[in-house]
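To whoever is covering the structure queue this week,

Two jobs came back overnight. Logging them here so there's a record in the thread.

Job A:
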Amino acid sequence: MSARRPRAVRALVLALVFGAAAAPVAAQVAPRADEVARYTGLHAAAHAGDVTRIERLIAGGAAVNARDSHGRTPLHVATFARQGGAVRALVRGGADLNALEADRYDAVTIAAVADDEETLRTLLALGASARNVTSRYDGTALIAAAHLGHDGVVRQLIAAGAPLDHVNNLHWTALIEAIVLGQGGPRHVATVRALVAAGANTQLADRQGRTPLALARERGYAGMVDLLAAAGAR
């Protein structure tokens, strides 16, 4: 079974159980191989991580924020490809760090979903915002990372000032997503721990009025229940 299939199966199960909107990060679309094969100019250089070519093209007047057919700039492409050197070269050349592609993802959220701590660290150091509202779900990179249990990413985003209690259009916070879309395993528990330690509001409830503690109890996630109860959650 491919590495991608378990996540795809899980997204399908979540959609069946909670409704199609329950797997918000599934809307993120990396460039397909056939798209990459058609890339030219900065998009091709960004995907390949060819810093010298990026610098030459920008010096020659290439549009650093040009869009491909899915609205991706070269910076989005470099982020998807984990090309940190290309990211730095593009930003030096004037790339918009907070640009949104067609599905309304910025580079920070792309790195967060990919669990790519190195590229995320680079983006944040260059001035990218952890506060952007992204995706068709009006979420944030922090919500996406919490959903997936990317605890290291969550800690980086918290340190960068990500809004802890942003409520997306599903009426879920990062804390709620770590519970209802997580698996109750170590990384999701670590995510809840990081959010609670940072001061996330443990009383914000979902549309049905269920608090994070109630949601964790419903699912039998003992580690999360203990953390939330110790923090005074009700």
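Job B:
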Amino acid sequence: MSRGGRGTGRGVTPEEADLWAELTRTVEKAKAKPRVTSHEQAPPPPAPKPRSEPKAPAHKSKSPLPPPSPKPSRPTVPLAEFDRRAVRQVASGRTTIDARLDLHGQRLREARGNLHAFLVACQARGARTVLVITGKGGAAGERDNLAGALGEPQRGVLRRSVPQWLSDPELRTVVLSFTTASLRHGGEGALYVQLRKGSRES
């Protein structure tokens, strides 16, 4: 059957037209399938977005503080020399020993504190020459390590330590000079110490 009437030479009868119309109403239109894109033509997957790192909180810019100015250091007063003539005068008794301090039997920390307090107090009283007795040590000096481990007095160590304490900068305003005493006053187990004039002295 030709819809246009071409080829057969006859037209479509009304019955045939009604039959065709009834047939086309009962047939559902075929849905067009979506076109499948080939693998080669498929668009590349989207690139992963770069992971954004948390931003550090913005700090207000502050001008750097200038470094603190160093405190002016107190000038260290050098020790004077205790000359031989002065030693002879003290040994012979012509120069009076104003005070004595015996450190026998004292531990290092106790002895150092007592020495410092003694010298400061003597200077405040106007004393000029004092005697500090450390002890020679003798056999005790050979047992210093054992005595220190047992917490016992170390007389040999005192003999070596007291000159170092007298040379400390903290005592430079008090101590003028020092030297080993004569045999009359203990020899190597004692020291003559000359004190500076105190600030209150005229």
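Note for Job B: The first strand starts at residue 99 and ends at 102.

Please reply-all if you pick these up so we don't duplicate work.
Q.
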